[in-house]
Amino acid sequence: MTDHPLISVIIPAHNNARTIRTAVESMTGQTYKNLEIIIIDDNSTDDTGKIVNEVGQRDKRISYYKLPYDDPHRINKRGRNINAGYSARNYGLEKTRGEWITFQDADDASLANRIEVQYDLAQKYGAIHVCVDWQKFDESLLDTSLNIEQFQQEHPDLAVIHPSEIVALAHKTKGPIIPFLGPLNHLIPFEWKRAPLINKLFFGALDPYPGAGNSPLFKRTVIAKVRFRPLSQRIWPSFMGRGADRDFNFQVAETFRSSIVCRLPLYLWRMEYR
Question: How far is CA 227 from the centre of its chain?
């Protein structure tokens, strides 16, 4: 696989000392080997950096950076982290060298063939943006691969969601007033957007992005037009005020019309940390 292109993996981390080692090692153990693994420390106050440095001594593909600024709007009035990781992800994009880019959350993990399968799907379907699916985190699954052929045999109804379907969902979920507001959208406070009676103008539907939106694989060309946006600028936020991943993926799908989703459960999600 040495002839395969370099893929950059960005891992944003904020006080993830308990889980960061597992997240990073699930990337160093990927069957796709031509990786650079970029950890962006988003103002951690625990031992996240110390643990990353320990792991990095064993694998030279790992780079560690501290985010040089903090988000003053990270926490909303309800005490909820509404901008989790979006600044760190954008900063990580600036550090990448790969032809392809993906993400791994610092409190989750991936099956060992997650990136290889995503890359193969991109080649098979000529897509520039590929998402797969998730399953609940289980330590017994670490360092294992999904048997794709067996899974497909056991799930004969498994189908790839094609670009036209995803674009249609993007249009369905976009608020009907958004096209008329244009750049003025960011001037309207989010709390107003979700207020009774008028929220349907800003939220066409609440369907999530199909598949695991936090771990897309996409070509580098995407970042010339699409980045992660602060809450005030998001067109596809969650109703509770997060949705940076949902907004990013729908934005990519609508902009490039070359996105696919395959519901192969390759991402391991620690649901208790959400």
Answer: 12
